[in-house]
Every structure is written in C-alpha cells, then in structure tokens.
Amino acid sequence: MNRDTIQKILIGLFVTACIFLGIQVVDTNNVLENAPKTEITAASSGSRMTYGRFLEYLELGWVKQVDLYDNNRNAIVLASSPELGNRPQAIRVEIPVGASQLIQKLKEYNIDFDAHPLPQKSLLVTIASNLILPLVFIAGLIFFFQNSDQSQNGMSPMNLGKSTARYDQRPETGISFDDIAGIDEAKAEFEEIVSFLKEPERYTLVGAKIPKGVLLIGPPGTGKTLLAKAIASEANVPFYNVAGSEFVEMFIGIGAARIRDLFKKASENTPCIVFIDEIDAVGRERGSGVGGGNDEREQTLNQLLTEMDGFKENKGVIVVGATNRVDILDAALLRPGRFDRQITVGLPDRLGRLGILKVHARNKPLDKDVSLIQIANRTPGFSGADLANLLNESAILATRYKKNVITKNEVNEAVDRIIGGIAGSAMEDTKNKKLIAYHEVGHAIIGSLLQNHDSVEKVTLIPRGSAKGLTWFAPDEDQMLISRAQLLARITTTLGGRVAERVIFGETEITTGASSDLQTVTRIARQMVTRYGMSILGPIALETDNNELIFKGEMSNRIDAEVCRIVSHCEQLATRIIRDNRVVIDLIVERLLDSETLNGDEFRELVEQYTIPPKNMA
C-alpha cells in the first residue's frame, strides 16, 4: 500500500468522523425544532428571548407553557403579550447554568411545563465521537511526520537521533586512483589501505593491524574529497559519507545520538569505511565553546572519541576525516589509536600540476598549440580544483567562440580570468590611461631588472575585477623557501608603480591606485622584522601567530622604525631604476598604449635593448 492510498484512507476516515459528529449536532437541534406540542408547533419558533426577559414574562403572567430540553439548558416558551400582538408565540430561551430554582418558580406560577429527556445516541455515533476522531488525529500526525519532506533528510521528529550518513553497499563514484594526480604520496597511503581491506592476511601474518583512522589535511581544493571518492570505489566495501556539520544540532544530545547510531550501523557492516568531511565542525578543541564542556558540540566530540577508541572497540570500521583547519582540532582526536595516520595533501608542484592537467584534459580536444607544460609553469599556487576549473573555463570559452577545439588563446584567457577576474572594456585614450600604463610598466621594469625577482609574464591595460591594469610575474620554478633578497625584490617591485607615477608626473599627481601595493609592502616588511629575523633587530621572533607582540613598550617603536627603514631603502632603489631607464619606459608605454597588452617575450625584447641593470641590493 503506497503513500497516496494511505493518505486517501486517512482523509476518508476523518471526513466520516466529522459527518458523524455533525449528525449528532443536527439531532440535538431537531429535538428543539420538532418538539411534539399542540400549540407550539402551530406557532412560530424562530424568535428568541433572554433569560431575564423570560422571568419578567413569568411574573407578569404572560407565559402559558414551557418545554425544557437538553438537561434544562434550553426551553421553548409559549407566551402571549401586548408586545407579541396578544397572540401566542413559541420563543426559544437559553437557560444559564445555576438556574436550579426555575422548576420551583414554574410551580408557583402554575405554569404547564414538561421536561424532555436527551435522545439516546446510537452506538455508531458514540464510537465516532469518542474513539474514531482521536485515532484518526493521532494516525494523521504519525503519518505526516514520517512522510514529510524533512523526514527524507533525517529531520523528522521521529528521526532526530538517527544518523544522516549516506550509505552505499558497493559505491560507484566514478573516481579511481587513476583519476588522481599531483598527490602521489597521499594516493600511495590510500592504496595501502585498500590493500589492507582486500588482502588482510598479508598484514596479519606479520602482526600488522589495519589503521583505525586516516586524517586528510590540506588547503581547499587539493583533492581530499576526491581521495575519499577513489577509496570508496576501489575498496569495494560498505561506505558511509557524512559531513561534520550534520552532527551538531541545537538540541542537546542529538549529535551524540547520531554518532552512536552511525557507528552502530557501521559495526553491523564491517569491514567498512566512514568518511567525515569537514571534521573540524565537530572536532574543534574542547573548552573553547559556549557552555564549557556541556555544550552540544563537545558532547558530540566526546561520543566520537569514545566510538573511535573507547572501552568498546569497533573492529573493521575505518574512519577517514578531511579538514583544512587541523590547527583547531582537539588533541585527543589526533592521537594514534583514533587517527593513526595524518596525510598532508598540499598544493601540487610543477610536475604535479602537469599530471593533474593531463587527467582533466583526457576528454577535451586541445589544439596542437596548447602546451600543458607551459600551463603548468604558468600556474604556481593553483590547486587541483583550480586546474580543473581552468580547463573547464577554456572549454566554455571555445564553445562561446564556436570552435571545435580548445586553442592557446582560450587557455590564456581562462588563466587571466581566474587570476585577475573577468575582463572589462578597454579604456579610452585619456590621461588616466597613460598614468595607469606608466604605473604597470613601473612594476614590470623593476621586476625584470632585479636579479632575484620572477620574470614578467604579461602587462595589460585591460581592466579585470577592481584593477584597472595588471602585471603578471611567473616564477621559473616552485619556490619552497624565500630568501631575504627575494623579499626585498618583491617590496621594490611592488613600489615600482607608485614610484613611476611620482617620477614621471610629479609628486602632486600620485594617485590612490597604489593603496593595495602599500599594504602589501608593509605586510612583507613587518614579517621580515617580526617573524623571519631579517632586520638589524636580530634573529628574534617578535610576534605570535595571532599577530600579538611578545615584547611591549619600546620594542614596538623599534619595530615600526625598522619597517620604515626597509620600505624606504626599497623605494630609493626603485626610484633609481625608474630614473636610469626612463627611455625604455617611455618606449614600452607607447607600445602598450597601442596594443593594450604585452606578453613576456615582447617586453623582455625591449628591455634587453635599452635598460641599465641596477646594482646588487643590500
């Protein structure tokens, strides 16, 4: 019997019960309307009278006959008065509760009265009024609670303590280990877990135990969830998938109940994998929330700790967690015995980016001029999700331009869109456009002449996002560590735009376009002083991770003075480079105003012909 059939039956029962109750009310009214009286039935029975007025009629002798109904709560009075035209009329009177002396008064005034008993209810009406309606009401509540839209997500009041994890007996995610690249170390760890599940005897032979928990740590978009999908497909065991936020509710105890229910179900289907995405939502360090140790989230965490490694051991249940905020997780959650392995899934290097691009380029027709190696070199800092989005944007652009293959132009435009934003309309040839051109060339010329800075990739006057012009630099290799010379080169290059405005147009023509540049150079210089020990103050860490000064008082003034000294030194160097290379700057600006964009090769060709290399930085 399906849901619609049950619903129709309940509605039918409810309507039937209402009809029975309506019959009961109609029967009572019929008793009043169709009372067997000789004079009353011949008279009109539509008029009404208050009880006080009825007593006045009684005292004046205008009442001829009274018939009482409904346990003396209602009466039909036959009265004749001048108000009624001295003609007998039947009038209905409602008798209030407590009028117990009415019968005595009727006897005193010698009024002919009669009391009519309540009609006998049929057995069917009695059952309908006392049994059917309550049962229909209760059954309706249960039915609609269990079949509401929310119950499908575990939000029904009947299912508050049930786990909301999605269960797959044999998951088919469509993702295998062959579809994962750029994170070979993490993939190898998961391949070993799959081997544990498929061939446990190989490991038990030497006394090895399968890990209870694996925690994936890394920035967003690096492939943590993708690894979970791959192990779900490759392991061929039952798989439970749930988000950490689904355990935490406003009702105390609901999260802990859901944890218990999840592990109870998992223990009935061992061996199995439980994947908890964004586990930091429930695993945050205890004692930092509202309510001390008694708030809902901490009770949920306590239950999770107990289930993973408590007095009662769960064998064969592997918990895979993923988070990008490992720094806020509780220490008890991270210890061996709960999460035996912590796998860092970081941003891919150049070879890793190349492998990821090859995976996502399988089903995309690329033109022969598209080089995945060049794309990998141009996208340092891109995550796997960024690279997948890059090729997808390229395919969308190729479709927009009605092409059958993806060419280099679409790839370059997609990279620019992701880094800088959507391109705006080209600016008109005005003073502002010329000033922006000198600003961007100032960045580019200094960055190309400094030995420790990245190479120029592109200079453009096409607005993107909030920027009116952009200069891109591409490193020759992935930089794991940054030297003091490289930091000073970055500060000098970042100041190049503002310095070019001042040298070319004068002090009064400096614009607000360098506001973000100034924030960047201040941040880098302060980190050199307080974090990296790259100043005359010595190799001392002067700030905590929360940007709080360790030493107060005079040390704060010394830090500010040293930051100003570093920035001032870089500004002087930038000014000297701009003044020494004014000829090539003017030439590049003219070329840039004509073409709107210069790529790195065109820019370097002009620079090599006319520039003067600067002296080494101090």
TrEMBL record:
It is found in: Membrane; Plastid, Chloroplast thylakoid membrane. GO terms for biological process: cell division; proteolysis; PSII associated light-harvesting complex II catabolic process. The keyword Chaperone does not apply. Residues 210-349 form the AAA+ ATPase domain. Its EC number is 3.4.24.-. ATP binds at G218, P219, P220, G221, T222, G223, K224, T225. The chain crosses the membrane at residues 9-26, 123-145. Zn(2+) binds at H439, H443, D517. One of its GO terms (cellular component) is chloroplast thylakoid membrane. Binds 1 zinc ion per subunit. GO terms for molecular function: ATP binding; ATP hydrolysis activity; ATP-dependent peptidase activity; metalloendopeptidase activity; zinc ion binding. Keywords: ATP-binding, Cell cycle, Cell division, Chloroplast, Hydrolase, Membrane, Metal-binding, Metalloprotease, Nucleotide-binding, Plastid, Protease, Thylakoid, Transmembrane, Transmembrane helix, Zinc. The active site is at E440. InterPro entries: AAA+_ATPase, AAA_lid_3, ATPase_AAA_core, ATPase_AAA_CS, FtsH, P-loop_NTPase, Pept_M41_FtsH_extracell, Peptidase_M41. It is a multi-pass membrane protein. It is an enzyme of class 3 (hydrolase). Its cofactor is Zn(2+). Homohexamer. Acts as a processive, ATP-dependent zinc metallopeptidase. Belongs to the AAA ATPase family. This is ATP-dependent zinc metalloprotease FtsH. It comes from Fragilariopsis cylindrus. The lineage of its organism: Eukaryota, Sar, Stramenopiles, Ochrophyta, Bacillariophyta. The gene is ftsH.
